[in-house]
Hints:
24% strand; three-stranded antiparallel beta sheet; alpha+beta; 10 strands
Amino acid sequence: MTPTAHRHLAALAFAQAHAPNAPILGVPDAGEAITAPEGVLVVEKRGGVHSVRTQEWEQWEWGIDSPIPFDTPGALVVSYMYRDAANYKTRGTASIMGPFSRADLAVLIGALTAGEDRCFIPHQVGLPDLQGQMSGEMDFGEDGDDHVWHTLEALGWRAVKTADHTWAEIGPRVRERLDTGYDIVAAMQELEGGFY
C-alpha cells in the first residue's frame, strides 16, 4: 500500500463499516477540499485485501464544479440525470446542508455510485426522482422505456444557509443503501403508485 493510500484509512475504515460488500470511495486527507474526481480513491475489498485503484476513471463520468471543503457550513449540490431507454434525458439538482466530514463524503459518493452501472435510485437516498419530468406515463414493463436508475453528474459546494435537505436527514438513508443495496422492485412500485 502506498503512503498516500495509507493516509486514507481512517475515512475508509468508517465507510467500510457501512458498506462491507461494496466498493468504497476514500476522500483524501491532504488539502482543504476535493477539487476533482481524481482526488477520490476507489478502494475495493476482495477477500481480506483492500485494493486501491486510481487509474480507471473512464468509468466515472461525474465531475466537481466547485471545490468541496470539509467540515464547513454550507450545502453540497448534487447534479444528476435520468436517461430512459429511448435516450431521452432530464436533469435535476438537490442541495444537502453540511458540514460534511471526509467520511461523510466518502459514504455519500459511494452510495451515489453503488448501483447498476454506477447509478443510484434517488428516492431511496432521500432525493427526488426525475422520471416525472418526462412526458407520458411511466412504464417499467418489457416494452416500456422507464427504469429506476439515475446517474451522478456533478458535485459542487455553495456557501448558503438553507438547502433542500440536511445531512442529518439524508445520511442514515445513504448508509442504509450502502448496507443493503438498492431495492429495484420497491422502487418501481413506489414510482408506479404501488401497482407494479
